[in-house]
Amino acid sequence: MTRVFIPAVLRKFSGGAAVLTGSGPTVVEAVKSAVRKMDGLYMSLFTETGQMRHTFMTFLHDRQVSSNLASTVAVSAEDVITLVPQLAGGVDLSNGFGVISEERSATTALTNDEILRYSRHLILPEVTLEGQKRLRAAKVLLIGSGGLGSPLALYLAAAGVGTLGLVDFDVVDYTNLQRQIIHGTSDVGRPKIVSATETIHDLNPNVKVIPFEERFTSENAMRIAKDFDIIIDGTDNFPTRYLTNDVSVLLGKPNVYGSIFRFEGQATVFWAEKGPCYRCLYPEPPPPGMVPSCAEGGVLGVLPGIVGCMQAIEAIKLILGIGEPLIGRLLTFNALKMNFREYKLRKDPNCPICGENRTINELIDYEEFCGIRGEEREAVQLSQSEEISVVELKQRMDAGENLVIIDVREPYEYAISRIPGTILIPLGQVSERAAELEQFDEIIIHCRSGIRSADALNILKSKGFKNLKNVVGGIDAWSVEIDPTVPRY
Ligand SMILES: [Zn+2]
Question: Ligand 1 centroid vs 282 CA: distance in angstroms?
Fold first, then answer.
């Protein structure tokens, strides 16, 4: 049987299984056979007409198979197919890839204090005083100063990168501290940009920080990015990933990419002039809600430290012009297995932004492209009659109404907090367990914040249920407005 590796983001549809087996003459047939009994998985991987979706890369061993060719590439029982999702990741380096010209490093000088500070760099034959001057001359833009941005900013500042641009409009939240180590407990509630700048200057006052306390958008992205040598993608959402990619391609700059999910990370360097770009790999964003954010899916706090450090090393290599950059290679990291895998990436000659016949010549509306509005994915639009506030829910419970309340979170979330009298049916099981519910009952659905429960409501609606209500704000609103003893998370 051909083995098919299922990525972590889709294991909610495979009953947690990481490997499924199937049989068939081609990649498509083998994958279809492996997932045939799992509706959710099938729909995530294939379109209604049975075509493989473009939101995944498919590898046969370590060779990438284009989704268009997957129905013609033959497989055998010994083969291994790996599906690599995008997570909210043939190279010509003969002309060199260092981003700092000799003229720029020649006009840069180090003080004696700096020479002492960077002494462990200066004695590396690959760096030397010349390399340290390049680092000093370099201007690196970090999109986001959160999980990936924290180690990136700290190590790039410590290494002596002369100018760091930071783009972030968020404030430090208590739940950030588990991984965003550039911020401290006393920073909770302060702008991340301010907190990060202070930490950077404490670590290395020689670094010039250029803060952009604004959302990175189509309107400001070119203005913000144009003066930087390298752009680093430390974002957590798909619209900003596509925007960061397109800005980098249009400006001809390298985009050092990293992404994280639970225990797994990805890193590569996109540079359209020398290799593939993000759109070459992932022409289409995943449907909203298929790949959860860290807030929805969780993340090991150390993981962004590993991936962010890999991005920092790649940025430094691009500045120094040393080693082999991750251009055209995707490195994936699995913390639970503690292993790395490397996949060769191909430039897509039909890529809409870096291909020969590009169709994208300027920045577009990325939230529309990704099918969402707003930075966080918003709930599917429901009518007012399909919504209920936590206050109204409490009143009806207190009035002794016999309510059917479904909690569509995961069991480990249910173990943290719950509303009394609710039935746990995780979102991934709603479709198959719908038969346990009575069509004519009024069914009230909640999750943590109201987004997954809106998805669940639509699933039940599609199965003929009519009397459904989504709890606005979920159990989080219940904790804030009704019962503060219910812990928030
Ligand atoms: Zn491309």
Answer: 9
Per residue in 402-440, pLDDT (tens digit) is 889 999 998 888 989 999 889 999 998 998 899 899 888
Q: Which residues of the chain have pLDDT under 70?
A: 86-95, 289, 291-296, 372-380
Q: What is the pTM of this model?
A: 0.73
Q: What is the rounded CA–CA span in Å between residue 424 and residue 277? A: 42
Please choose, from the candidates 353, 283, 268, the residue with its C-alpha nearest in 3D space to the C-alpha of residue 67: 283
5 vs 21: CA distance, rounded Å: 9
Give dist(CA 231, CA 309) in Å, integer.
Answer: 15
What's the 335 CA to ligand 1 centre distance in angstroms?
A: 29
Q: Parse the chain into domains and list their residue ranges.
A: 2-85, 102-369, 384-481
Distance CA 408, CA 446 (A): 6
**Which class in CATH covers the domain with range 2-85?**
alpha beta
Output the CA 35–ligand 1 centroid distance in Å.
Answer: 30
Domain 102-369 class, CATH top level:
alpha beta
Give the chain's radius of gyration (CA, Å).
24
The residue behind tokens 């989704």 is 67
Are 233 and 216 in contact, with CB atoms under 8 Å apart? no
The predicted pLDDT at position 377 comes to 47
* Dihedral sign from CA coordinates of 184, 185, 186, 189: positive
Distance 53 CA to ligand 1 centre (A): 17
> Of 298, 325, 299, which is closest to residue 313 (Cα–Cα)?
325
Separation of 44 CA from ligand 1 center, angstroms? Answer: 23
Instruction: Tell me how far the alpha carbon of residue 52 lies from the centroid of ligand 1, in angstroms.
Output: 19
Q: Is 294 a catalytic residue?
A: yes
Answer yes or no: 447 catalytic: yes
- In this structure, how many other beta carbons lie within 10 angstroms of the beta carbon of residue 324? 11
Domain 384-481 CATH (choose: 3.50.50.60, 2.30.30.60, 3.40.190.80, 3.40.250.10): 3.40.250.10
Question: Residues 277, 354, 370, 447: which is the catalytic one?
Answer: 447
273 C-alpha vs ligand 1 centroid, how far in Å? 10
CB 406 within 8 A of CB 457: no
Residue 237 corresponds to which tokens in the numbers above?
A: 């959402």
The active-site residue, picked from 294, 351, 354, 370, is: 294
Q: Tokens 């968020």, residue?
A: 170
